[in-house]
Specification:
Length: 431
């Protein structure tokens, strides 16, 4: 047994909380059938806590969604090996583990709710959550996610990763530029998956009645980030290096995730309009860590498949798009559908108009919201194809400049979104 770990065996969550009583730090790891990767995550967390916070009482919570591959057994048995090879000094307090199923709607949000509840019960000073399938996590992540909360007074630590230029396409083309334009903070990875946060935000998260909604299934990352931004919590970023996970072709694997995440962003726009309507510019947030070039895994992208999907959408969804998009936008899309692949382009101006029109249509419920979001998929794939075509010869730094220009375009057109939103709301009240 790891001398630096005290494990829960058959205890219930309540029994474990009563036994531990209180703690300084909590690390949450949601899981579902992650037995192949979670041992590395647990060891990295354990080493990071022992190395950087040896005098703090720390608790690791594995909130599991009913794994059938032995994930929770792996968490129980995961150890540091020989801690002398990793640590400069011994940890004063053993690392407690709470391994518990979560209840409610299946999904990452329900898992986080359990983590938040334990954090509140133990009255911890700082929390962090990390994904269970990470292959690139290091012990230093613990200091980077927790130190800004514990020592610098920040409430929310968002991750900053070095990623392949075609990894994170939902973030790059929609979530980052839209969140930046709406809430005025340049948080580059608002759905990154690995975050640090304060007890103040734990209480804020648990005070909101969202746990029987789609936030409990998906969208929890952008929900947390938006809550932090829209409640004026102190927000920063920490550079974590590479995020290595199972990268996927955005034309094949990410369509359903896109509708889920974007639906969450649009719904949050409804709730927080009184905040974002007042925001007229964006600003950098403090950065911890030392940004440096790191290797990233390649991402295979099938441009032809994405353009074909867009052209199929033009044929089959145009009547539906007519209720969402302006005639000028539809005309541009038709022209691009007829262009040869090498000249295909969904430029930043057009893409910003598309996203803002879809946000407005979602707000005013011009149709079933699920149908609306699904009809955005071919347009999203068209934007990704255009992005890949325009950056194939670009370095990572040059590709990042392209995303920065897109974000500026979202900002420059925000007045249109805000004015249309207010006019529509006024008209609805008159009726």
């Amino acid at each position: 047994m790891d001398p630096h770990s005290s494990e829960q065996s058959a205890e219930s969550k309540e029994e474990a909380i009563a036994r531990i009583g209180a703690a300084d730090i909590l690390i949450g790891i949601p899981s579902y059938n992650n037995s192949k990767t979670i041992a590395h995550v647990v060891r990295a967390v354990s080493a990071g806590l022992a190395r950087h916070f040896p005098s703090f009482r720390a608790v690791l919570v594995n909130s599991d969604g009913g794994s059938s591959d032995g994930t929770t057994d792996v968490v129980r048995s995961a150890t540091l090996g020989d801690p002398r090879a990793l640590l400069l000094q011994s940890s004063v307090n053993p690392l407690e583990k709470i391994i518990t199923p979560y209840h409610g709607i299946p999904g990452k949000g329900s898992s986080f709710r359990t983590i938040f509840e334990i954090a509140r019960a133990l009255q911890v000073r700082a929390c962090a959550v990390v994904d269970s399938d990470l292959r690139s996590i290091t012990p230093e992540w613990m200091e980077l996610l927790l130190r800004p909360v514990l020592s610098e007074g920040f409430d929310y630590v968002s991750p900053l990763y070095m990623r392949h230029k075609y990894d994170g396409t939902i973030t790059n083309t929609i979530v980052y530029p839209l969140t930046r334009a709406l809430y005025g903070k340049r948080v580059r990875q608002p759905i990154g998956g690995d975050f640090g946060f304060s007890q103040k935000l734990v209480d804020e998260f648990l005070s909101r009645n969202v746990w029987e909604t789609d936030v409990a299934r998906f969208g929890i990352d952008i929900w947390m980030t938006t809550i932090a931004l829209a409640t004026n919590a102190r927000v920063c970023q920490s550079f974590l290096g590479a995020k290595i996970h199972d990268a996927k072709d955005p034309g094949v694997h990410l369509a359903s995730m896109m509708t889920q995440v974007v639906g969450s962003v649009f719904s949050l726009m409804d709730e927080f309009f009184p905040y974002w309507e007042r925001v007229n510019h964006s600003e950098e947030v403090p950065l911890f860590g030392f940004p440096h070039a790191v290797g990233s895994e390649p991402v295979d992208v099938n441009i032809e498949r994405m353009i074909d999907n867009f052209r199929l959408g033009l044929r089959e969804l145009s009547p539906l798009w007519q209720t969402i998009l302006t005639p000028e936008i539809l005309q541009r899309l038709t022209q691009e559908g007829q262009a040869p692949p090498e000249k295909f382009s969904i430029d930043d101006e057009l893409w910003t108009q598309i996203i803002y029109e879809f946000a407005l249509a979602h707000h005013f419920r011009v149709m079933n919201r699920d149908h609306l979001l699904r009809s955005l998929v071919p347009l999203y794939l068209a934007k990704i194809a255009s992005l890949v075509l325009s950056t194939r010869a670009s370095s990572s730094e040059e590709a990042e400049d392209v995303i920065e220009k897109l974000a500026l375009t979202f900002q420059s057109h925000k007045d249109y979104l805000r004015d249309r939103w207010k006019e529509g709301d006024s008209e609805a009240r008159r009726k």
